[in-house]
Design goal:
Number of domains: 1
Mean pLDDT: 97
CATH topology: TIM Barrel
Shape: globular
Structural class: alpha/beta
Distance between the termini: 18 Å
Strand content: 15-25%
Helix content: 25-40%
CATH class: Alpha Beta
Order of helices and strands: EHEHEHEHEHEHEHEHH
CATH architecture: Alpha-Beta Barrel
Largest sheet: 8 strands, parallel, barrel
Number of strands: 8
Low-confidence stretches: none
Length: about 270
């Protein structure tokens, strides 16, 4: 397996420092964001591309288009603008997240949104990374539903899934789609008091021995099934963002995951 880094892991670092951190950790793939930190609206895409090339790092994705499955209002214009940015920044893909506010989105509308987004991606040579959110209020909780909609939209050439270990656990999903997956997001939850259905982004820390999300078993399963893409750290917890030495913490998490996988493989 190979690790990657989402900028949410170290949101206080400027782009150049974030890229340098990834390289020191032995990574060559990163994700930039349009929320925290908001690189898209603060750094020119040409500057991001130049910095990534200088650092020897590939931008796996720009994260994220939201809510991609509600294709109305200003979403089409925002989709084109974000896709333009991703292309100009040299990114390979654009993460796409569904509406997550308790309102239902019909399956037909999901399919229609995928159909509408597909030519925008194709014209720019991008992959759309569809990320189901496992929260109870999410309008698209499972990868199985996403795969069905992608196939109905005729988008198998341009869409891949994001397997997020946090959302996989929250959705109670057991099915894996390694051949349809383009990226894996990894984060852990260690708080023993929070129920699974009540877990939120601020609970998401780096993966360690106290993890309740079964990250290592999920990763082990993906590896066994042949997934060979990046596993990107995506912790949202404020305590991770405030770490005095995020590099050491990330190294420790990488070591934990690697050691667990190696130990089981040799058992």
């Amino acid at each position: 397996m190979r690790f990657a880094l989402n900028h949410i892991a170290t949101p206080k670092l400027p782009v150049e420092d974030f890229l340098a951190l990834a390289r020191r950790l032995g990574m060559t793939e990163v994700e930039i964001r349009n929320d925290l930190p908001d690189v898209v609206d603060t750094v020119a895409p040409e500057d991001v591309k130049a910095a990534a090339e200088k650092a020897g790092v590939e931008i796996v994705s720009v994260n994220a288009l939201y809510p991609f499955n509600v294709w109305s209002g200003n979403l089409p214009a925002r989709a084109r603008a974000l896709a333009d940015y991703a292309q100009a920044a040299g990114a390979k893909a654009l993460v796409m997240c569904p509406l997550n506010d308790g309102n239902r989105v019909a399956h037909a509308d999901l399919v229609a949104a995928l159909k509408a987004m597909a030519p925008i991606l194709r014209e720019r040579g991008l992959i759309g990374l569809v990320e189901p959110l496992g929260f109870p209020i999410s309008s698209l909780r499972t990868k199985a539903q996403a795969v069905q909609a992608i196939d109905e939209a005729g988008g198998g050439d341009v869409y891949r899934l994001v397997h997020d270990t946090f959302h996989h656990r929250l959705a109670g999903e057991t099915e894996f789609f390694p051949e349809r997956t383009g990226l894996v997001h990894i984060s852990g939850v260690v708080d023993p008091a929070v129920a699974v259905e009540a877990m939120l982004d601020p609970h998401r820390v780096l993966v360690d021995a106290a993890d309740r999300l079964e990250n290592v078993p999920q990763i082990r399963r993906l590896v066994a099934l042949g997934f060979d893409g990046p596993y990107s750290f995506e912790p949202f917890a404020p305590e991770v963002h405030e770490l005095a030495d995020p590099e050491a913490a990330l190294r420790a998490s990488m070591a934990h995951v690697t050691e667990e996988l190696t130990a089981r493989a040799g058992a």
